[in-house]
Amino acid sequence: MRHIKVPFPITLHNPHTMKVLRKDDGTPEEVVSFRSFINNLLTNPKWVETYTNLKAASVISTAVNALFDGEELVLPEDAWRMLSEAAMFPKQIIVTPNGPVVVVGFGFHPQVSVQLIPMLDAIFNATLVPDPQEATPPPPPPASLQ
């Protein structure tokens, strides 16, 4: 099992002015929670390529949607590996007037995307904690000690 320390939300800033990105109505443009970051990674078309991938996406989605900031996300090793791969090579399906298109990246300008590094570090630095149910019993002592 992998334990990911959930980072607190990140408020994105304009890299040139360092002002908070804002919508046309003046409200903050984007505060990225770990939950929303992971849910964006789940728009990668790789998740629907196989049944195994779809099951992993379901495990990740269920676990991440039950989280609160500052908690730990616990994922099986195979689901964590797939999440790490999606984070390392991000792609998203974006619906355009001409239909869906696969776009490489996190959905933000590259100079804004670097502000997401704490989210990526949390995934890549996940702690491996052995599952006690899968632990193998220790070998028996040598015959001379029995």
Describe the structure.
The chain has helices at 34-41, 51-65, 77-88, 110-113, 117-124; strands spanning 2-5, 10-11, 31-32, 72-75, 91-96, 99-104, 127-128. By secondary structure, it is α+β, with helices and mostly antiparallel strands. The protein has one domain (2-130). The strands form three sheets. It has a three-stranded antiparallel beta sheet with strand order 4-1-7. Strand 5 and strand 6 form a beta hairpin. The mean pLDDT is 86.
% residues in beta strands? 15-25%
Mean pLDDT: 86
Structural class: alpha+beta
Shape: globular
Topology:
Layout: E1 2-5, E2 10-11, E3 31-32, H1 34-41, H2 51-65, E4 72-75, H3 77-88, E5 91-96, E6 99-104, H4 110-113, H5 117-124, E7 127-128
Antiparallel strand pairs: 1-4, 1-7, 2-3, 5-6
Helix pairs in contact: 1-2, 2-3
Gist?
The protein has 146 residues and is α+β, with helices and mostly antiparallel strands.
Descriptive key words:
5 helices; globular; alpha+beta; 3-stranded antiparallel beta sheet; 146 residues
